[in-house]
Amino acid sequence: MKLKNKTIWITGASSGIGEALVKLLAQEEVNLIISARRASELERVKSENERKAKIEILPLDLEKCEELKAKADHALKLFGQIDILINNGGVSQRSMAMDSQLEIDRKIMDINFLGTITLTKAVVALMLERGNGMVATVTSVTGKFGTPWRSSYAASKHALHGFFDSMRAELEDKGVKFTLLALGFIGTKLSQVALKGDGSPNGTVDETHKKGISPDVCARKILKAIQKEKREVYIGKEAYAVYVKRFFPGIFARLIKTAKVR
Ligand SMILES: NC(=O)c1ccc[n+]([C@@H]2O[C@H](COP(=O)([O-])OP(=O)(O)OC[C@H]3O[C@@H](n4cnc5c(N)ncnc54)[C@H](OP(=O)(O)O)[C@@H]3O)[C@@H](O)[C@H]2O)c1
Predict the structure, then answer these.
(1) Which domains are delineated in the chain?
(2) Quick one: which of 8, 12, 191, 227 has the fewest CB in 10 Å?
(3) Segment 150-159 mean pLDDT
């Protein structure tokens, strides 16, 4: 897929992997719409990446599903079309399942799953009118297997795989492509803002993330997968575990109990 003159909407663009994607795509002749909750951080990302791309900011909160259709209508007006939606915004978890309050389980599902699919449905309706488009969704290897400390996060990412596999089966022949990007540990601050069982932020960056691949490398791999129109891609050092789970489920079940996930 050629990127030139495409309009690409990136959620979660105020930090981490989303910001790295903006940095990478800013070097191309594309239109970028960048979204997250913090407008001031989006302004910073925009001002630090004034290169070839035209960038517009569109703040939104994925937890507020009822506002997302209007956001998609607004996004359409910015450049007249949306060719690629990159669903990257999300929140992680640092709590054992039994210690996580129901409202926090729900919040994680609302942001990562329901917000993402609500926004996607509004955008895909526009793509179907033109008969083409792509939706690339950032999930996690925990969308392929569960680990301790991530019960609702893993559930939300598994849900994205199920939803988008179904949506792909329904719409691929109508011109809309779906890419799922399941990531291992990436060197961002995701763990710092991850939610504890009572909803407070975890507060520190985990060692596992410090040792993860860089957001820039991750962004390059994501873009490559999008351009090659891959259906599902695993990125990061932990990707091998997807195959261990698939081919040696008993061994996997024993090892994951004590795997270093923080
Ligand atoms: N880092 C990893 O190791 C890793 C591994 C697997 C998957 N991932 C996935 O990668 C994606 C990006 O994470 P990251 O590592 O780059 O972490 P990050 O730096 O914390 O980025 C998360 C982004 O999501 C946005 N966001 C959070 N809550 C939101 C909400 N309610 N509405 C709209 N936007 C919201 C944040 O912006 P605001 O706070 O401004 O809203 C931020 O831009 C996430 O989906 C995450 O699950 C990351």
Answers:
(1) 7-255 (3.40.50.720)
(2) 227
(3) 98
